[in-house]
Specification:
This protein is α/β, with parallel strands linked by helices. The chain has 10 helices and 13 strands. A 5-stranded mixed beta sheet has the order 1-7-6-4-5, with helices on both faces. It has a 4-stranded mixed beta sheet with strand order 8-13-12-11, sandwiched between helices. Strand 12 and strand 13 form a beta hairpin. The radius of gyration is 19 Å and the shape is globular. Bound molecules: acetyl coenzyme *A. Acetyl coenzyme *A binds next to helix 2, helix 6 and helix 7.
Length: 327
């Protein structure tokens, strides 16, 4: 049994938050943000009518339209997110209910920025097992709902977005995910976390001014982790599949920071034209980032059938994931 990507979709809020907007809120500048991150603007939700649920729902709705399918054709919805409005019900359950997937299954995956790639890997495995025939996979976060905009170390990086793909069973077993890795190291999660209670806050971080419920990040630690992990995960995937960068149509990297992506390009020897960049326009949208890139590339015809492509992400947890597909 193989797996086919039948359609993709994405959703971003209309509202743009530029570097100049941020420099009116905290002590920063367009020049600093562009040099250190590659970001020029990001999208942020209007909280009165948008959020994690609406972004992921709209992305999946567009993926279904692209596939020529309806919600009732899906057996399961999986949503990668860390900004759920509610821990119960899951975002996936609400989407399944609204798009007509009921009584199909639905659950959220919490792997921070790795969420979409985690969900794609799980969905591919479930379809290959023969137990599911069609799964709606979403990854999306409304990061603006957990960002302290008084804190320049986090506010400059993040934006809101969701991406989705509809996966269906295919008789050709060579189609679908040909290599995957799901990884985590929860021994030290402290560089990136969203505490709800003081009990969970490490002693050394007790006087952090960022309020409970908002993202806390040690940017330098995450940066070091990301640079070495990205390289390792991409090299592992190339070795396991016996592919070279020249064999791939795209390497879709989580849009965390342009310097992290450029380091992977340089250290692994990836052709820059195969590494899509949209961080300048959308910032780091956490679990939304890889799915948003996939949808933009898919619609532009840049993920051709028969040629492998790779998706790779890392995030809070700490987590990481890779997924190599023949589409
Ligand atoms: N504007 C202006 N100056 C700033 C800003 C800012 N927004 N932020 C920090 N600075 C200053 C610092 O105070 C420091 O000044 P000093 O030298 O006088 O002390 C200087 O700039 C350098 O600060 P660093 O923190 O060392 O800056 P760095 O080059 O590491 O860039 C950044 C910071 C952009 C956050 C970087 O560390 C980064 O991108 N890290 C990775 C973050 C990431 O990818 N997070 C997402 C993980 S995915 C997920 O799961 C959600």
């Amino acid at each position: 049994m193989g797996v086919r990507i039948a359609g993709t979709g994405s959703a971003v809020p209309e509202r743009r938050l530029t570097n100049d907007d941020l420099s009116r809120m905290v002590e920063t500048s367009d020049e600093w943000i562009v040099q250190r991150t590659g970001i020029r603007e990001r999208r942020v939700c209007d909280p009165s009518r948008e959020g994690t649920f609406t972004l992921n729902r709209d992305a999946l709705r567009r993926a279904l339209e692209a596939a020529g399918m309806q919600g009732s054709d899906l057996d399961l919805v999986i949503v990668g997110t860390c900004t759920q409005e509610m821990s119960c019900p899951s975002v996936a359950c609400r989407i399944a209910g609204e798009l007509g997937v009921t009584p199909g299954g639905a659950f959220d995956v919490v792997a921070a920025c790795s969420g979409f790639v985690y969900a794609m890997n799980v969905a591919d495995s479930l379809i290959r097992s023969g137990r599911f025939r069609s799964i709606g996979v979403c990854g999306g976060d409304a990061m603006s709902t957990i960002i302290d905009y008084q804190e320049r170390s986090v506010s400059i990086l993040f934006g809101d977005a969701a991406g989705a793909a509809v996966l269906v069973a295919d008789p050709d077993p060579r189609r679908g995910c040909i290599h995957q890795q799901l990884g985590s190291d929860g021994r030290d999660w402290t560089p990136l976390y969203i505490p709800r209670r003081l009990q969970e806050v490490p002693e050394a971080d007790r006087d952090n001014p960022i309020r409970m419920g908002n993202l806390r990040m040690n940017g330098r630690e995450v940066f070091k982790f990301a640079v070495s992990r990205f390289r390792q995960v991409i090299e592992d995937a190339l070795q396991a599949t016996q592919l070279t960068p020249a064999d791939l149509s795209q390497v879709i990297c989580h849009q965390s920071n342009i310097r992290i992506i450029e380091s992977a390009i340089e250290k692994v020897g990836l052709p820059p034209e195969k590494v899509y960049i949209n961080i300048d326009r959308f910032g780091n949208s956490s679990a939304g980032s890889v799915g948003l890139c996939l949808d933009q590339l898919w619609r532009a015809g840049k993920v051709p059938a028969g040629k492998p492509m790779m998706m790779v992400a890392f995030g809070g947890g700490m987590t990481w994931a890779s997924s190599v597909w023949t589409v």
